[in-house]
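CO-FOLDING WORKSHEET

Operator: S.A.
Ligand of interest: molybdenum atom
Run index: 489
Mode: holo prediction, single chain
Checklist:
[x] sequence pasted
[x] SMILES validated
[ ] output reviewed
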Amino acid sequence: MSQHQPRTERDSEEASSRDRFVRRRRLLMATGSLAGVGVLAGCGQDTGTPTPAETEPPTEPPTEPPTEPPTETETPEPEQEPLEARYPGLEILSPEPENAQAAARATYTDYITPREEHYIRNHYPTPDIEESEWTVSLTGMVDGEVELSMEQIKHSFRTQSVTHTMQCAGNGRSFFDPQVGGNQWHYGAVGNTVWTGTPVSDILESYGAETSDGHFLTVMGGEHPEGEDIFTRSIPMQKVMDDTLLAYNMNGSPVSPDHGFPVRLLVPGWFGCNNVKWVDRMHVMDSMVIGDEWEEPGAPEDGQRTYTHWQQYSYRVVPEEDTRAEHYEDIPVYDTREQMDQTDEINNAYMYDQVEKSLIGYPGEGQTVSPSPAGTIEIIGVAWAGDDAVETVEVSTDGGETWGEAEFFGPVGAPTGWRQFRYVWQEPSAGEHTLVSRATDERGYTQPASISAPEDQLRSIQDDQFPWNQGGYGNNAHLVHAVTCTVEE
Ligand SMILES: Nc1nc2c(c(=O)[nH]1)N[C@H]1C(S)=C(S)[C@@H](COP(=O)(O)O)O[C@H]1N2
Ligand SMILES: [Mo]
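OUTPUT RECEIVED:
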């Protein structure tokens, strides 16, 4: 077990992205040693647009126009359209690293989220990757280590598609009181899309990987920020073998650069952080990524970047003033909700399988709506529960005082995709109303009503209160997600 104390300045996933982002647009492709911890040659080199030579400004305005236009010596690289133009359905939280959430509740009336409305969550800037030069290496407990081209990944194994509700572990963070630091996601860091790719189990079996329970696939992102931690997550082998993909298509089109082009890990139903983008290396291990070998200053070769931060220090449900912060090689249960129930044994749940949650998409926040001729309003939304199915959704039109059951409609994809629900609001009275929805999953877990006070620590979950936590993770309290709307006469 690691002896390292949490580096408090990096305890929130957000500290890193906000304060220390790297301005590097180009990633040079070199995968380095397969045996050692990825050595990336050429990273951090500045290959930005050359600045044209500058001349001293004249002290007096020139009287004659120059006879010849200034000659361009170098053609600058074509500028990409700004983020807001590329994703008109998103509200930008930061342009670099790229962070953006759904701009309107209306996203949550449809089954499929268009790419332009699907949130983006980056710790470091989106790398610029050439698909033909990209490889994914497989290392660790395998018969033979290998480096796979995108061509091989796409065409040497089976292809599968899965519907997945991708949600950032920090979605709903802005509702924590007192406020916690970091990106202030409201409800918009979630979307439902169809992902197509290669089952990771096919690749592991082909290369004789150790795939029994208790092992982990540690997956590293390929953006390799200079002097920063490598985005790395350890996925339990049971989940990897069950349904995890190396995905290259999103809604039938190539995954966009911001969403992980040319290939990302897709862990159906699990929190966004597990879905490593720009996958560079997969390492088969008999524990989660942990210990000196993977941490500074022991990280081989460069002594700077660590591989443990995003698995062991971030994405944990840490109560106020918690100093225990143990780091585990393995835990008895991966479901995030169940870990929270076992808070004595597992201190600080890891954000793996998602908790049950629902969002109203119509009416939208602050919207004025009018009843149909029959005097009804149809409330529409979506509900999901990670890799468990949603069993029921209830809707309240009086701020949670009374509830009625909604009905499901729309496509039934994998349980890892959300369900659409509708609730017919009979005879709504004119004026302002507070609409709330709450989902219950197949195991009987229901969204709690509110967020606890910090001093209630983690046990509040048994008391219908989502535990306030330092990172602002996992918020599925229903009251804070309510919609206020006005019904016209
Ligand atoms: N390599 C890499 N993968 C990553 C991240 C990252 O910063 N780097 N962010 C993670 C987080 S926190 C989330 S919520 C999802 C977001 O995926 P999206 O941007 O496609 O919505 O990607 C995950 N994969
Ligand atoms: Mo996230």
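REVIEW:
Residues 1-66 have pLDDT under 50 and may be disordered.
Helices lie at 13-19, 83-86, 150-155, 200-206, 237-243, 309-313, 336-341.
[x] output reviewed
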